[in-house]
Amino acid sequence: MHWIYLSPHFDDVALSCGGLVWEQVQAGKAVSIWTVCAGSASVGDLSPFAKELHMRWEVDENATAQRRIEDLNSCRRMGATWRYFAIPDCIYRRNPHTGEFMYASEISLSGPLQPADTLTIMALQEEMKNFFPTDTVLISPLGLGNHVDHQLTRLAAEGLDYITWYYADYPYVLRSREKLESMQQEGWLSQVFPISLDGLTAWQDSIVAHGSQISTFWKGELEMRLAVSDYLEQNKGLLLWRKPVP
Length: 246
Known about the structure:
By secondary structure, this protein is an alpha/beta fold. It has one domain: LmbE-like (Rossmann fold), CATH 3.40.50. The protein has helices spanning 12-26, 48-57, 63-78, 117-129, 148-158, 177-185, 197-208, 214-217, 221-235, and strands at residues 2-7, 30-35, 81-84, 136-141, 163-167, 189-193, 238-242. A 7-stranded mixed beta sheet has the order 3-2-1-4-5-7-6, sandwiched between helices.
């Protein structure tokens, strides 16, 4: 079986599943990480909000290229192969009809998907169909936290016939206890996958590789390592979820 993890951004699978990816690779499984929003913004074509985020990340206008280098290092630490799609991060996307930036504020990142992204989802589905091995196990983000790119990725995945598992978007899952409880009440099934100490280290190291993003969630590397260790301990492993059988 070929395990394919869909990552809305360069860092999401490392954040949410880095230890499990490493364990699966060590067990001889074929594991790939497909990053959906890996496309570049046009040079010089940034909203004030995107420029603000670039300053926070300490990157320049070539942020996508810099983040891709981080991701290559992260994938190598996990042992996974990779594939990148050309959809730009939501902070770079413009409405094709009006030219306006569709997600130009912090609050818009967790709001509704813009109608123009419907065509983006359809095009992504058609492109992904060209690459699926016949024995695919597809793992999609649940979309916890409601980030628009996570919404887009899940909707694209659910329009295909390959989806098998969902992963909880970390660290957004830490603020989503009620959502997980409601999923259990609806009949969703979860399975715990054990992660060894070496797997935990590989998980933490794969996140460290995404150096520009550490400050988004933590004060520094040490705080991140402690947080991921605590998260693993809480669940006694890593949880993946299945939809209830009709």
